[in-house]
């Protein structure tokens, strides 16, 4: 019944370890089981997507890994404190792009004289060089998510948690950010746990896809994605595996009587 960080001097072979995690909430009809007996290891440097129908508990699971909530039963251990990126960019509109990143650096304890240069480096990493002084309202949706990604990277976590970060973007912008995320993941060696309900997005990005059943969320099936990167949404192997996963997902939805 705990979410814990691995000790600084402890050698671990995982970025996140979930052991028999369940989560219940109190509702009008009593206790409602949302997640049931979830066990997952995310290896160092691994990119894993969590996939499932709306309401299956994907975001709840991510919040548990982030330490924003505690499991009802089971345990979660992470290698350091995870960084979290949401569907909404959650940038402070009264700060510039660079100052949003500098705030994350400040909270991490980076000395003030070093923050500007580090923020500039992170903006360049997400291909927003020169955007330090831009206000949030001056940025497009895709640019805001790039800044949000840079702010998450400013936390220097070993594990990046992403909760449908591209869902609100148009298809072209989303595709471009898929490329950027894949590049940044390869360059940094981060572990990524990425929540989505988009099957092709899951296959496009991940090394491993985990499908959760409808509520209560249980691990219904896993797929290793052996398609070489770089991948495209329209690539035949991506489409073929996406179709296979979609059929299993449809079966889960039908089995649980959801529409």
From TrEMBL:
Record bears the keyword ATP-binding: yes
Keywords recorded for this protein, A-Z: ATP-binding, Nucleotide-binding, Transport
Domain (ABC transporter) ranges: 16-239
Molecular function (Gene Ontology), one example: ATP binding
Pfam family name, one: ABC_tran
Coiled coil: none
Full protein name: ABC transporter ATP-binding protein
Organism: Streptomyces bangladeshensis
Record lineage: Bacteria, Bacillati, Actinomycetota, Actinomycetes, Kitasatosporales
